[in-house]
């Protein structure tokens, strides 16, 4: 049923894009087939050179080419350029190359249709509000530029949110707002580049665009190297974390479970996107410092001595020292350093309290404790979920930040792991 609804939605968008195709062609036409060819070639190149971030989001400057095409050649050329780029791009992935001949037809139809609709209406809004196409004075038409770009963001995010709503059943407005937040800064930045490219083309011709395009590709290459370096760092850190799982046999899988509980609480606590990203990384790496602790202490079946407890308490500092010199992990290092601090100031290593403790550290402390209680340990068998939640509730305001502790108890009490497993399968 979901697939049928999805196909009905995509075919409806396709029909609307066909109507807009003939409307914009008849009303605005193609002033220069040379410029149409130029923009189509450039957008196929930029869309083919998309950079995939670790979170799965693709980064491309293709929108800049679309914006430039709209402002220099009108709504029809701009929309056709956008559809052409997403349809004929060739993207390298882990299994080879992705292109129009090995991409599901409905995916190509959706992407091409929604981009044609978004771009053509963006161009129509620009001209209707008094924007001048192909004239270098268009740069002074600030309201038409801003309103047309805003129109693009709203339409593009709405089409994507509607598809996700059909497929997942999640709240449309929640999905739309999430997409909108991601698109706004990207459109502001890339849209500005598009305006500059358009101005260069109108003022100095194709040569200026090509001269501008070279540094743009160079900056893309530099950013790609940065992303790959960051991924290499993370792969190395995750390898260390897996070696920690092998080292501490009683807590295998602990980091993954802590990450799951931490993200549940972080989302419920409405952390920002950056905080959630930091939490996701820090929670899975929170015990990385245990790699510097002797196996005999980590896997000791009996009670630890005071000296052994003192040694164990060093692992947040060891983890901090491992990560703090990696530039993009500095914030993560701080979160890990403080994940054993207590709300009442009786934790370690620095005995900070209350709001001095990073919220991500407070969340990990709760998730870590919950998993520790509900998992087998060298010195005892696992205890029940109910017992663990009671302990967390009883220690709210002392060991744990009270609001976070209350929220965690509520969401885990209502959390059905078996139901989630069935949903995922």
What does this structure look like?
With about 425 residues, this protein is mostly helical. The protein folds into 2 domains: about 220 residues, Arp2/3 complex 21 kDa subunit ARPC3 (Orthogonal Bundle); about 200 residues, Hypothetical protein af1432, CATH 1.10.3210.10. The protein has 18 helices and 4 strands. The strands form 2 sheets. The chain has a two-stranded antiparallel ribbon. A hairpin with a 5-residue loop joins strand 1 and strand 2. Helix 4 runs antiparallel to helix 5, helix 6 runs antiparallel to helix 7 and helix 10 crosses helix 15. The longest helix is centred in the middle third of the chain and has 42 residues. The chain is elongated. The two termini are about 15 Å apart. It holds the Pfam family HD_5. This is HD-GYP domain-containing protein.
How is the topology of this model organized?
Layout: H1 2-27, H2 33-48, E1 51-52, E2 58-59, H3 62-73, H4 75-88, E3 91-93, E4 96-98, H5 105-128, H6 142-168, H7 172-204, H8 206-247, H9 254-268, H10 273-285, H11 295-298, H12 306-312, H13 315-323, H14 330-337, H15 359-373, H16 385-394, H17 402-413, H18 417-424
Antiparallel strand pairs: 1-2, 3-4
């Amino acid at each position: 049923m979901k697939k049928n609804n999805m196909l009905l939605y995509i075919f409806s968008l396709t029909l609307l894009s066909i109507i807009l195709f003939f409307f914009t062609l008849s009303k605005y036409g193609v002033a220069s087939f040379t410029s149409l060819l130029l923009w189509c070639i450039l957008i196929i190149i930029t869309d083919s050179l998309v950079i995939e971030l670790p979170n799965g989001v693709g980064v491309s400057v293709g929108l800049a080419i679309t914006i430039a095409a709209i402002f220099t050649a009108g709504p029809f050329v701009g929309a056709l350029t956008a559809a052409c780029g997403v349809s004929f791009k060739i993207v390298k992935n882990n299994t080879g190359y992705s292109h129009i001949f090995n991409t599901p037809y409905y995916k190509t139809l959706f992407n091409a249709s929604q981009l044609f609709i978004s771009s053509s209406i963006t161009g129509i809004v620009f001209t209707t509000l008094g924007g001048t196409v192909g004239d270098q004075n268009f740069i002074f038409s600030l309201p038409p530029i801003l309103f047309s770009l805003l129109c693009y963001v709203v339409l593009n995010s709405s089409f994507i949110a509607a598809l996700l709503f059909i497929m997942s059943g999640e709240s449309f407005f929640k999905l739309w707002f999430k997409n909108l937040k991601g698109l706004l800064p990207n459109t502001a930045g890339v849209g500005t580049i598009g305006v500059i490219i358009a101005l260069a083309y109108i003022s100095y011709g194709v040569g200026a665009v090509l001269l501008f395009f070279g540094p743009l590709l160079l900056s893309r290459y530099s950013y790609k190297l940065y992303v790959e370096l960051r991924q290499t760092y993370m792969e190395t850190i995750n390898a260390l974390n897996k070696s920690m799982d092998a080292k501490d046999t009683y807590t295998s899988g602990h980091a993954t479970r802590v990450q799951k509980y931490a993200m549940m609480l972080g989302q419920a606590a409405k952390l920002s996107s950056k905080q959630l990203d930091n939490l996701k990384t820090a929670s899975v790496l929170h015990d990385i410092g245990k790699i510097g602790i002797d196996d005999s202490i980590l896997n000791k079946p009996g009670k630890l001595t005071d000296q052994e407890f003192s040694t164990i308490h060093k692992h947040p500092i060891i983890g901090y020292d491992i990560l703090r010199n990696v530039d993009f992990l500095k914030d993560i290092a701080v979160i890990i350093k403080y994940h054993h601090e207590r709300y009442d100031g009786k934790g370690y290593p620095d005995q900070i309290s209350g709001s001095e403790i990073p919220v991500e550290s407070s969340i990990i402390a709760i998730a870590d404790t919950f998993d520790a209680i509900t998992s087998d340990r060298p010195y005892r068998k696992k205890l029940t979920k109910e017992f663990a939640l009671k302990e967390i509730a009883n220690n709210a305001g002392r060991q744990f930040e009270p609001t976070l502790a209350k929220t965690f108890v509520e969401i885990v009490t209502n959390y059905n792991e078996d139901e989630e497993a069935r949903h995922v399968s």
